[in-house]
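Comment thread on ticket #2218

A.B. wrote:
> Attaching the input chain for the structure job we discussed in standup.
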Amino acid sequence: MSKKRKNHPNQLTNHHILPTSRGGKTLDNLCYVPRRQHDLYHDLFSNRTPEEIIDYLVNDFWNGKRDYVSKYQEKYSHNYRVERRNK
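C.D. wrote:
> Ran it. Output below, let me know if you need it in another format.
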């Protein structure tokens, strides 16, 4: 059985939804994502909060068109969790 390397791109890593430096120090603030996705997330969004990320996308990518946010807000407003299994 091969042991996964710690820095393998598919190795699951902790991600704090609200950065710990911005107050996100609770366990319910954690999710697990593959290392490569985690690195790309921080390359794009740096240390922004979820609200700052939405503002960044609206202003810098969507030309201020907030209607796209409200269009999907109802779809994603309920609390759900997608389970990932480490294979």
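A.B. wrote:
> Thanks. Noting for the ticket: The chain has a mean pLDDT of 83.
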